[in-house]
């Protein structure tokens, strides 16, 4: 079983991100149901390891918080362009949650994540390089000021991932609630 931990996005935010999905030749736009913010990719595990990871994640205690998406960017460049992503507003709470998830996964016996955490939501991927540079610059310029309304993060999810010929299929396996506090910030 291939696992990762992520923040699913509310439907109105997914709809907004899907509206950004045009104007880049060669882009494979991520289906709305697959849009998420990855906290930790875990990889292939057996059933026993999956139970240990579940137990460790279930022990995480942290207050719920609000998140806001803002701006777009890319990973890679030129013929090595890999993806287009939406950034988040600076938010120490998402990094704090990611750190708790990382420590839980390590306690469950997995190696530490080698890559630096860059919170983002991938909205498009490229197989054979990106679009012409002028089209990419135009797209990035048109969407540079994108900003979602703040939305509540009141849980995180352990997903399984199955790679098929038509793309990845993500299945939520376990949802872990964050602590609701009196006067909790909500997306209104």
Please describe what this structure looks like.
The chain has 188 residues and is α+β, with helices and mostly antiparallel strands. It has a single domain (2-177), classed as Alpha-Beta Complex (Cyclic Phosphodiesterase, Chain: A). It has four helices and ten strands, in the order βαββαβββαβαβββ. It has helices at 11-19, 47-58, 92-107, 133-143; strands spanning 2-8, 28-29, 36-44, 65-67, 69-75, 83-88, 120-125, 151-153, 155-164, 167-177. The strands form three sheets. Strands 3-1-9-10 form a four-stranded antiparallel β-sheet, with helices on one face. The longest helix has 16 residues, at 92-107. 25% of the residues are buried. The model has no long low-confidence stretch (mean pLDDT 93).
